[in-house]
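Name: Mutator family transposase
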Amino acid sequence: MAAAKSDAGSGIGGDLDVRIARELLETARGTGVSLTGPGGLLRQITKTVLEAALNAELDEDLGYGKGDRTGKDTTNERNGTGSNTVTTDIGEVRIKVPRDRDGSFTPQIVPEHARRIEGFDEAIISLYGKGLTTGDIQKHLFEIYDADVSRDLISSITDKVLDEMKLWSSRPLARVYPVVMIDAIMVKIRQGSVANRPVYVAVGVDTAGERDVLGMWVGTGGEGAKEWVTYLSDLQNRGVEDICLIACDGLKGLPEALNSLWPRADIQLCVVHLVRASLRYASKRYWGQITKSLKSIYTAPNSEADQVLFEEFADEWEDRYPAMIRMWRTSWENFVPFLEFPPDIRKLVYTTNQIESLNARFRQATRRRGHFPTDQAALKVLYLVIRKPLKNRTNITGKTVSWKQALNTLSIYYGDRINAQ
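Structure predicted for Mutator family transposase:
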């Protein structure tokens, strides 16, 4: 038990941390030196630690320590120091870098010509992915770390992820996805003039219940089936042979493109989007009545009852809002597939809401930027949002239904198409 306590913050290690902190504070007070700032004690300590680490590296490289001539069995030896200024988490630190006579020493702690130690670039990339602009980050770094970093440098650091994004967008995918959701988010991009452009996002759920963004594509806003085939063929080319169920908005040409690429897939139009589209045709004074009637339709126990309820709804509203009823009749074939499943499983397939949380993160990252100069600049920011795995992967259907339950139900309907291994 003593050892366990020692490892915890409240044991020996914790006491040591507190003692070191107090000693640093007392030293700062006694010498009149501040802890932070350009000449602060923390920066001096960082300089000392980095230089000691570099000298230890050179000792190991040469095979003997400084001043230890007895251990020397090489003609190579120390040859003074060079200077380097590196940006650390507490600001810029000027250090002396030891050199060897034949120039073979390659430091790892602070690589040759490095201007930032490891971790600084990732901090900038993380801030950029959270929605901060290059100007925001520049101000943040100066205020918090006293580091004067140019906006051009910040841009070049974040551009490092472009190669990573390229590999991500061409990575192999699973052979089968029980469920895929497709949605769009609007982003302002300059194309001659600044305009809203759709970024289409496909999220797949594999047989283990893991959610993953499969791909992202910047559209022109006027897509038809031909354009959709171009985007989605990317998934097919990366290994997706079969999709059982696809939940999507009623994007123009999308169902036709999906049928041409995966003819056995069931296409489920997002019910939430259909309801929202219905309200666009209706006066606000009737929204309550319409949504109540539509809820009874999409919560019907089966497709037969659903058809009866819809006809009653059409009889009530078709004379007043014929375009709304026509939209439902046109969408009917792709609206009813989810009714074949038990009520608890329907939550998995009748809406793209599982992508909505991701879209919220996308909006947070793009909101403060106004617009993007290029398609690539927009995709870079969205990619930074999804670098980490999506949350809530093991119970994507909600609190009451686990993925294992959902998978068993889907397997009944799709049989051997779903490889549960």
